[in-house]
Every structure is written in structure tokens, then in C-alpha cells.
Design a protein that fits this description.
Largest sheet: 7 strands, mixed
Number of strands: 22
Helix content: 25-40%
Shape: globular
CATH topology of the largest domain: Metallo-beta-lactamase, Chain A
Keywords: Hydrolase
Strand content: 15-25%
CATH superfamily of the largest domain: Ribonuclease Z/Hydroxyacylglutathione hydrolase-like
CATH class of the largest domain: Alpha Beta
Distance between the termini: 6 Å
InterPro entries: Beta_Casp, MBL, Metallo-B-lactamas, RibonucZ/Hydroxyglut_hydro, RMMBL
CATH architecture of the largest domain: 4-Layer Sandwich
Protein name: MBL fold metallo-hydrolase
Length: 465
């Protein structure tokens, strides 16, 4: 058996890990879009590093675009197998992939308006037609249920606690009369998350592929999330009369923010200002989360006994039309704007940042992971000037962050995720979905816990196991 790493290798995006059995059966774990890597991004998304038509099965850990966003491209280039995922992941992928196709098409149309004579036309990575074909190939499997996807392969999912529907992938692979157990973590959530259940334990594995986004960090904020949110909103909106702009992923982070703000209202602590969610996708994703209450932790279930809408509160408005979104930039009144994308690399939030970043009364609040080369990453690094829409903008707005709102576990969460494993029985641990310097630190944490054979793959590197 061979494992090749064609994405999320020494970076945090583009998740793709290809397993090839001795009989040449190919199983692809995730098929994510590369994001936030500057000039490298386009080339990485146009070349898989393998032949999609040769892949037999696709197993999807969750619906974030950096894990599912190239599925339609894979299908367009010849993949005809089943795509296995949890029911909630299937529901989310429908809205996220259709939105992604729309963006791809719009971007290509915009680029083609500026073509010079003789230049080739820009083509989208995929179209809505490709997405609709992709969705036909989805096959849902619930958590904690062994499912035979191939005569030699049994698949199981456990809850990874990252976003609604997220799963750790467990494969029992039979070759030459011998069974090999391989676990792919997907993205691991937090223990004690605001909304979701904690990651589940899982059976002993021979090989583990695990994310390492925060492999060198602990999410230790001085104050609870609600206290920090209230302090930032009061200081910005009530005292400075400014706006709080929050780049937030449409899936997961936005709902967690709404839940925290709703909790503040229940306690009578919510500042009296307008709250906007400026993302049609966030509205759809929130409805999906409402449709899957089985993912909620016990604390949320207790709140639901006294509050039927845990994502709604006084002063909240979802913005759908472009016209309404633009109107927010012309409205001088203090408010809170939650908008995607989470790393501020595109979407409506980029416009809100441009219109508010050079005014010191405003605050830009980061609530999730930011790739260092992304706009959010540059702001968190303290950059005093940023390039937006063909122009430099001075950074005078206050830049804040709440690290503990990340959907990714810190290194203690990751170690707890692995705590049910006997390290002496794990033959190899492969670190993916992390920056190389961070992975080196996490590798040492793992060795300290007894996992001796820890490997940090490079892009397109293949291993015989």
C-alpha cells in the first residue's frame, strides 16, 4: 500500500491524500481547494498530481472548501466513483459547492472583460453543471457504522467535532490476508466547544494521518469568549462609535458567533447595536445546522429548552442582496458586521475591511485560523499597510483576535484526540494541514508521548507502508 500527499502538505489548505492498494485500487481522502497562497494558488488548483479517472473512491472528512472544493474539478476530469461522507456534510456541500461554482464563473467572466487581443480566455475551475454531477455521486454514511466500500476496504466515521458533519475517517484495509487500520483525522475540533460535541475516541490504528494546524499553540484567552466579544463591541461601537468587522467562515464560525451573542442576550449583556450577517451562504449554512441538532453538545441542548432559536437575537439581520451589503458601507452608524471569508481573501468582508480599515474608531476582529499569506494573516502579523483592490490602505483600525474560537484543536486537543491510541502499536504518524515550523514542534510533542515514527510529508511525496 502507498500513501501520497497531494495537498495540505506543509501548508493548511488543499487537502488531498491518495491511498493506492497493491491491486491498484485508489482511495482519495478529501479533494480540497487551495486558498490564500498568493501566486501559487492558481497553479496548485489546476494540477492534481494524479489522474482523477484512476481514482476509485473518494472519502470526504467534512465540507470546508479546503477539503471539498475541488471535487467538481475531479469529476470533470474523469472521476466516476462514489463520494462517501456524513449526511450533514452532504447537505453543506450542496450549498458550498454551488456557491463556489458561481464564484468561479463570475471571476472568469470578470477576467475575460480585461483580456487583451490574442490572450486565451479565462475558464472557471468548474461550473454549476459539474457540481450537479458531483452531487449525484455522493453516498451518505452515518457516524459509528462500518460500511464495506470495496471487497478489501471497510469505512467508518467518528465525530471529529470540527464543524457540523465533520468526521475522522477509519479504514480497515485487507491485503494478502492481513488487515491494516488507517485513520485520517480530517480536522479535529475542540474539547468543550461552544456548540458541538467533543471529538470521539476511535479504535487502535496502525497508521494515522493527522492535522496539525495549531500543533504549537494553546487556545488560552484571558477572558471567556462572551466577555471578550462584549468588551470589543462596547469599546468600538458604544464608546468610539465605530464598527466591528468580523471575517468569519460561513460554516461553523458564524454560527458559533451567533450562539455566543444570543447567550449574551439571554443574560441581558448584549450591547444595543445592530448586528449584520452579510453572507447569503451563512444563512443557508445556519439552516443546515438547525436541521442537524444531533451534533449539538449537552450544554446547547439545555439552552434549547428555554430558547427555541439559539442563533437569533434582538438587532440581528441577515443581509442577502449586494445592494444591502453596499449600503452598510455608506451607513455611518455603529454596528457589528459578520461576513465571509474567514481569512478575508475574498467575498463581501474584503469590501467592508477596505471601507473601515483606515479609521481608528473601527475594529477588525479575527476569530479563526488565518494563513500567514492571507489578508487576515497579514493584519494579525501587525502589517501597517495592506493592498486591497489595486490600492494600498493604511491600517489604523484596531486589530483583535479571539484564538479560542478556532474550530481547530490546539496541541493539547490533538494529543487528547490520540490519547486512546497505544503509541507502540502505531507504525507511522503523518502530519498534514499545518505550517512546517508548527509541524516540527508538534512532531516533538508526539515523540514525547511515545509516537516515535512521525513524518512531515512534502507536496506530492509518496510513502510505501
Amino acid at each position: 500500500m502507498r500513501i501520497a500527499f497531494h495537498g495540505a502538505a506543509r501548508t493548511v489548505t488543499g487537502s488531498k491524500h491518495l491511498i493506492t492498494l497493491k491491486n491498484n485500487t485508489q482511495i482519495l481522502l478529501d479533494c480540497g481547494l487551495f486558498q490564500g497562497l498568493g501566486n501559487l494558488t492558481e497553479g496548485l488548483n489546476e494540477s492534481f498530481g494524479f489522474d482523477p479517472a484512476q481514482v476509485n473512491y473518494l472519502i470526504l472528512s467534512h465540507a470546508h472548501i479546503d477539503h471539498c472544493g475541488l471535487l467538481p474539478r475531479l469529476v470533470a476530469e474523469g472521476f466516476r466513483g462514489n463520494i462517501y461522507c456524513t449526511p450533514a456534510t452532504s447537505d453543506l456541500c450542496r450549498i458550498l459547492l454551488l456557491d463556489s461554482a458561481k464564484i468561479q464563473t463570475q471571476d472568469a467572466e470578470y477576467a475575460n472583460k480585461k483580456l487583451r487581443e490574442g490572450e486565451p480566455a479565462e475558464m472557471p475551475l468548474y461550473t454549476e453543471k459539474d457540481v450537479l454531477q458531483t452531487l449525484k455521486q455522493f453516498k451518505v454514511i452515518p457516524y459509528n457504522c462500518d460500511f464495506q466500500i470495496d471487497i478489501n476496504v471497510i469505512l467508518g466515521f467518528t465525530d471529529a467535532g470540527h464543524i457540523v458533519g465533520s468526521a475522522a475517517v477509519h479504514l480497515k484495509i485487507n491485503e494478502d490476508g492481513k488487515t491494516t487500520n488507517l485513520t485520517f483525522s480530517g480536522d479535529v475540533g475542540r474539547y468543550g466547544d461552544l456548540l458541538l460535541k467533543s471529538p470521539q475516541s476511535f479504535p487502535q490504528a496502525d497508521y494515522v494521518i493527522i492535522e496539525s494546524t495549531y500543533g504549537d499553540s494553546l487556545h488560552q484567552d484571558v477572558a471567556p469568549i462572551e466577555d471578550t466579544l462584549r468588551e470589543i463591541i462596547e469599546q468600538t461601537c458604544l464608546i468610539r462609535k465605530g464598527k466591528v468587522i468580523i471575517p468569519a467562515f460561513s460554516v461553523g464560525r458564524t454560527q458559533e458567533l451567533l450562539y455566543a451573542l444570543n447567550a449574551m442576550e439571554l443574560k441581558g449583556e448584549l450591547p444595543d447595536v445592530q448586528y449584520y450577517v452579510d453572507s447569503p451562504l451563512s444563512l443557508q449554512a445556519t439552516e443546515v445546522l438547525r436541521d442537524h441538532p444531533e451534533v449539538y453538545n449537552n450544554g446547547v441542548k439545555e439552552v434549547m429548552k428555554v430558547d427555541h432559536d439559539i442563533f437569533g437575537f434582538k438587532g440581528l439581520k441577515f443581509i442577502e442582496s449586494v445592494e444591502e451589503s453596499k449600503a452598510l458601507n455608506g451607513d455611518p452608524r455603529p454596528c457589528v458586521i459578520i461576513s465571509s471569508s474567514g481569512m478575508a481573501e475574498g467575498g463581501r468582508v474584503k469590501h467592508h475591511i477596505r471601507n473601515n480599515i483606515s479609521d481608528q474608531k473601527n475594529t477588525i476582529l479575527m476569530v479563526g485560523y488565518a494563513e500567514p499569506r492571507s489578508l487576515a494573516g497579514k493584519l494579525l502579523a501587525g502589517q501597517k499597510q495592506v493592498w486591497l483592490f489595486g490600492q494600498d490602505y493604511d491600517v489604523f483600525a484596531e486589530i483583535r483576535s479571539i484564538k479560542s474560537m478556532s474550530a481547530h484543536g490546539d496541541y493539547e486537543d490533538l494529543l487528547q484526540f490520540l490519547s486512546g491510541q497505544n503509541p507502540s502499536l502505531v507504525k507511522q504518524v503523518f502530519l498534514v494541514h499545518g505550517e512546517y515550523k508548527v509541524q516540527q514542534v508538534f512532531a516533538q510533542h508526539l515523540r514525547d508521548k511515545g509516537f516515535q515514527n512521525v513524518i512531515i510529508p512534502e507536496q506530492h511525496q509518496e510513502f510505501e507502508v
